[in-house]
Amino acid sequence: MIAPIDMNLDELRDALAPLIPAQAVFDGWTSTALAAAAADLNVPADRAALCFPGGAIDMIDAWFAAIDRSLIEAFPPERIATMKIRDRIRELTWHRIAAASAHADALRRALTILARPAHALHTAKLGWRAADMIWRAAGDSSADFAHYTKRATLAAVYASTMLAWMDDESEDFADTRAFLDRRIEGVMRFEKLKGQLKPEGDRYFSPARFFGRLRYPVAR
After folding, report:
1. Closest among 45, 75, 53 to 19, alpha carbons compared
2. Of 39, 50, 42, 41, which is closest to residue 9 (Cα–Cα)?
3. Can you list the domains of the chain with their CATH numbers?
4. What is the pLDDT of residue 195?
5. Residues near 159 by Cβ (< 8 Å), separated by ≥ 6?
6. pTM for the full model?
7. What is the DSSP string of 62-130?
C-alpha cells in the first residue's frame, strides 16, 4: 500500500473522494470539508486542493466516480450473469443511489450545486457517465443507435428518480425505490415493444437501394 503522502495526485484524488462526503454533511462541498478529509489521511490541505482544481464540482465528480468503482466491485460478472436484464439495471441503479444516500445531506448539497445553470453541461456529462457505466456493468455491448437510446433513457430515469429522492421522507427511501421500480418497468416494456415493432433487415429504407432501383428497375 502506498502511503497517502507518497501518492500522486490521481491516486490521492481517488483516496480522498470517499472521505469528503462525511465532511460535506457539515461544511458543504468546500475547502473546509476537503481539508478535514485530507487531515484524515495526514495529507496537507494545500496538496489535497491540487487534486480538485475545479472546487466543489470536481469533488462531487470524484465522489460519484468512487461510488461507480464500488458498484463494479459489488456486482462482479458472476453475480450479474444470474440476473435478468431488468433486474440488473434496477439493482445497479439502486445500488448507486443507495451508496450516495449514505451521506444524504451531502448528496442534497451536491445535487443543489449540480442544478446550477453554470454546471448544466457537467451535470449532463455525469448523468450520461452514470447511465453508461450501469449499462456496461449490466453486460451491454451494443454499438449501434441502441447504445445511445439506452443510455439517454436511463439517464432520464436516473435524473427523475433523484428528483423523487429529494422529497422522499420514507424509511430507507422506500418511496424512491418504488418510484425507480416503476420507471424501470416502463422502460423495459418500451424496449420490448420497440423490439416487436422493429422491421426485418430487408425492410429498412436504404437510399442507395432506392435510387439503384430507380436506375435499374427490378425485372418482372
Report:
1. 45
2. 50
3. 81-220 (1.10.357)
4. 55
5. 127
6. 0.83
7. HHHHHHHHHHHHHS-HHHHTTS-HHHHHHHHHHHHHHHHHTTHHHHHHHHHHHTSGGGHHHHHHHHHHH
